[in-house]
Amino acid sequence: MSDRPLLPARLAIGLFLLAGVVLPLAAAVHARVSGPRLHGEVVAIAGPSVVAQEAARRANAMSRHPVDARVIASGDDLSPDADAARDQVASGAAAAAVVIDLREAGDTILVADWLPDDVAEQLVADSSAVSASYGRTLRAERVPPPHPTHRRLPALLVALSITVGVVLAAAVSAWRGPVAATARRGAARLAGTAAAGCVVGALVATLAGADRPLETALTCAVTVAVSAWLVLAAESVLGLAGLGLATGLLLGPVAPLLGGADPAYLPSPWWEVDRLAPQQAALRLLQHDLMGIGVAGVRSWLLLLAWAAIAVLTLVAARQERPATRRP
């Protein structure tokens, strides 16, 4: 078989505009109109047991902005465990924490500094409504992560890694064609883009002054490689149209990140879709690597590796179906 694209090349621009402009724009407009949406974020509550439990019940009953309010156990009702509440917010175990001290005139809400401003404001507003329901006022305080880092740096690094991966794939395709002529050349493409990803990761970890340089470099390297492999896989099946589609799908969701928005707080259905995207996995891993927040569990790594496996399997299948290329 020849390497003629399975879809007309003129679809490239249309697919790029659809995936990279129209859908992200629709998500941005929807988010702007509806505001940030909470999806069960953890809110810790420290205070007298009876009051804290009732506050948690009222918070969990707010169906419009659902949260997962949890009471922090304390051995002394007169002295709420404010240190434990602060530690949970700083580590990313909770998005916010409310400290109820009946010896004071009002309560205090500790909000994670890494949250987008609109999300933080929504948490404060909802918590203020709960405090007001039992006659208390609320004072807000932002809590920095264990490793203070600019809030947008992880998102910027995700955008950089994705962009480098897309450019690498486009360069390889322009040089050697969309499908490798042999299995050895196909493996060389994968190895070459992975090696380039390692170089990018090492540079990023060094220039960013990461507290976890090895983890940061690895996350960026894998993100570059996965992005490049997905573009190569799409192009091997759809030709130039695949390049446009994959580029749009990879770069389109990055635009909100550059504006300081977090896709985790988009309304449905965008939030559900984004949870499965490689960009989201890379963002969570870099937030952990650079800021020390949250737990970079196996889910994010499994998600990235799953996308890598899909790309590799697609490339293998495409070469078997269309084994010949014009340029060996």
Automatic annotation (TrEMBL):
Top-rank taxon, per record: Bacteria
Residues passing through the membrane, by range: 153-175, 187-210, 216-233, 240-261, 300-318
Keywords, ordered alphabetically: Membrane, Transmembrane, Transmembrane helix
Protein name as it appears in the record: ABC transporter permease
